[in-house]
Amino acid sequence: MDLKFSNKKITGILTILPEREVSFEDEMHNYNFSNAKSLKLKSALGLNKRRIVEEGVCSSDLCIRGLAYLFETNKLQKEDIDAIILVTQSPDYIMPPTSNVIQGYFGLKHDMICLDINQGCAGYIVGLNQAFMMLDQEAINKVVLLNADVLSPKVSKKDRNSNPLIGDAAAITIIEKSTQETEVFCNIKMNGKGALVLQIPAGGSRLPSSPETAILYEDASGNFRSKDNLVMKGDEVFNFVQVEVPPLIESLLIKASVKKEDVDYYMFHQPNRFMLHKVADKIGVDRDKMPSNVVENFGNSSGVTIPVAITYNLGSKLIDEKFKICLSGFGVGLTWASMLLEIGPLDFCEIIEY
Amino acid sequence: MNDKVLKILNEIRPEFDFSEPVDNFHEAGMLDSFDIVTLVTSLDEEFGISIEGVDILPENFSSIKSIVKLLAKYIQK
Q1: What is the full DSSP assignment across A259-311?
Q2: How far apart are alpha carbons A83 and A135 in whole angstroms?
Q3: pLDDT over 80 at B33, yes or no
Q4: Among A160, A222, A238, whose Cβ lies nearest the Cβ of B56?
Q5: CA distance A215 to chain B (A)
Q6: Considering the entire predicted model, what is its pTM?
Q7: Is the pLDDT of residue B75 over 90?
Q8: Using CB atoms, which residue from A40, A238, A275 is nearest to B38?
């Protein structure tokens, strides 16, 4: 589905990363593989270190830390917020929505919308789409998009397929109406037939968590995980991305009448370096234009990796400059989406720690 | 080319003998999806190619013969 938005802009991006850092080597002994084999994988995928929360820290904690920072530094005024969108797969509660919890924490005005969206790796683009649609309303001038995922507690420490990849993070993006003529092009696709390719089997209504769902079992590759843990069919996810994402980007650029070489940066979801290099090669863009350094430094934080990639790789550059950026997210759902827009100059573009 | 492929496979999973006839490395549990990532990286480096993502399918890495067939496609390009 092709979407187009006019006269909207991103005015600030803040990433919140847990202070706690763990390295691949620290955890290698947990895996049921030789050190030599694990180190080969580390090199091939670009694994190194990742940020994960301390026990008990939730998605809302990271968001609250970021919002408090923005309020304290006068980068955001409480009374200006007309909507909070939180995209997460790790809400604080099954009910109520975590966005309402955050609104309540800060005592924000009642005349606003709070909305939780359950989305994963494409969650940044899904959230931006929702924000742009809200901004078509006369009453809404400023939307706070929160992307937050704390998935590390849901991953088995003995699962080499997932554990060394996963990181926790949150990001806050401010989206506003613009008086300047701006255009945002987007395309998004979904295929629920592949919904269980990436999943946490237990913990919902279909299979409530129980002592039985917490029992570890060994898969065919020698990884141990329980039904309470995240599981992915890595080869199917990889193939889905390689088949679906390049034509998605090609279609987006054609719709926008933009040549691929005229795009300054391709800020994509960060599953791992190997997968991104193969996508960049297939699309035919310079690997330097598609940063792939998030997993090796911070881990894959699902729907948060795109703002992490932007703040880490562009940071203060975006305070003074404007870039044409192609975003793309792909994974859980299955969902795959891309967006072309100009970003900058921003009021803020930085990383803080929790 | 067979020898080079065999050497790479033995480096990745030294506990198996890849020279023995096996119908399917993947189904026999000799190569998992993460081994294939390591294998592709090694093949790219060894042969100076870039195997496309759409070709990174288990069936293209099921035997020495299928791997060599895939490599031939890139080396002829």
Answers
A1: -GGG-SEEEE--S-HHHHHHHHHHHT--GGGS---HHHHT-B-GGGHHHHHHH
A2: 9
A3: no
A4: A238
A5: 23
A6: 0.92
A7: no
A8: A40
State the amino acid at position A123 in one-letter form.
G
CATH superfamily of A1-354: Thiolase/Chalcone synthase (3.40.47.10)
Determine the 3-state secondary structure of A16 from DSSP.
Answer: strand
User: What is the pLDDT at residue B77?
Assistant: 65
Contact B34 A161 (CB under 8 A): yes
How many whole angstroms separate alpha carbon A42 and alpha carbon A33? Answer: 13
Partner residue opposite B38 with nearest CB, options A44, A234, A278: A44
- Note the pLDDT tens digit of each residue in A101-115: 999 999 999 999 999
Q: Residue A141 above 80 pLDDT?
A: yes
- Cα distances (angstroms) measured from residue A79 to each of A71, A83, A111, A283: 10, 11, 10, 43
Return the CATH architecture of domain B2-15+22-75.
Answer: Orthogonal Bundle (1.10)
- As a whole number of angstroms, the distance between CA A200 and CA A134 comes to 31
- Does residue A12 register a pLDDT over 80? yes
Please report which helix (H) or strand (E) contains residue A15, including its range: strand A8-17
Output Rg (C-alpha) for chain A, integer angstroms: 19
Residues A308 and A169: beta-carbon distance below 8 Å: yes
Q: What is the pLDDT of residues A289-303, one digit of tens each?
A: 999 999 999 999 999
Three-class SS state of B14: coil
Place of tokens 């370096």: A273
Contact A282 B33 (CB under 8 A): no
A37 interaction partners in chain B (CB closer than 8 Å): 12-13
> How many other C-beta atoms are found inside a 10 Å radius of the C-beta of residue A14?
25
Interface check for B52 against chain A (CB to CB < 8 A): the answer is yes
Whether A45 has a pLDDT exceeding 90, the answer reads no
Most B-contacting residue of A34, A162, A165, A235 (CB-CB within 10 A), to test interface: A235
What phi and psi values does residue A231 have, to the nearest 5 degrees? -140, 140
